[in-house]
Amino acid sequence: MDRRGPRSGQLSPEEFTRQRAGTVPLGRMERPEDVANVIGFLVSSKSGYMTGQALSVDGGLVMH
User: Fold this and answer.
1) pLDDT tens-digit readout, 2-32
2) Measured between alpha carbons, how far is 16 from 13 in angstroms, rounded to an integer?
3) pTM higher than 0.70 for the full model?
């Protein structure tokens, strides 16, 4: 990427992040600890009765 600034029609990384966060129902971008917490649950005994699940860690962006 050109470090002198965004090209015509391109968003800066900060603007892209701000706009993207506005589309997430929880109102913020994910953080590494959001994913780490799910992984921690899955490797714990608390998830021992779960089978064959697909989990989305996306702040509600994809709702089924």
Assistant:
1) 555 556 679 999 999 999 999 999 989 999 9
2) 5
3) no
Compute the 3-state secondary structure of the chain and give helix, strand, coil in percent, each to the nearest 5: 35, 0, 65
Contact 25, 60 (CB under 8 A): yes
Greatest extent of the chain over all pairs of C-alpha atoms, in Å: 53
Residue 40 has pLDDT above 70, yes or no: yes
Burial 32-46 (b: 16+ CB within 10 A, else e): eeeeeeeeeeeeeee
Q: Which two tokens stand for residue 17?
A: 């992040």
**Both structure tokens of 20:** 């993207």
